[in-house]
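ok trying again, last paste got cut off:
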Amino acid sequence: MTRAFVFDEPGHVVRSGRTVADASAESAVTLPMSPRARDAIAALFYARTLPLRAGDHVRFPVNEAGRNVVVELAVDGVERISAGGTSIDAIRITPTLERRVEDRQPVVSTLWLSNDPHRVPVLLDLDAGFGRVRVELVSYRP
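nice, full thing came through this time. structure:
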């Protein structure tokens, strides 16, 4: 089922519905949202703007599908990886999700961003307990 989420930062709520119009309506399901929370995609864009030096740890709130979590990014350093049929230097980041109540096996993931000013996501390895996925960039045009 498709769901739409509308973030209301000033109101500290996220509204949910079948469509954006439904989620924007007063009758939408409304859930509390942590101040300055962002969705998972916006969190990735935000992370790409950070200095990301080896040993850095950064924490920020994320609201994903109405659930408030805190993401901690641990910057592991730069390593050479193979992605898209080529070998590149990439910044290795280990995200950790903190929930108020752990109701399932924690998600274990590693993200690699290009080690250049663009910080392009080149590889993601994610294990959600019920399955594992590896996402690899195969081409890129700036």
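cool. The first strand starts at residue 4 and ends at 8. The longest helix spans residues 40-48.
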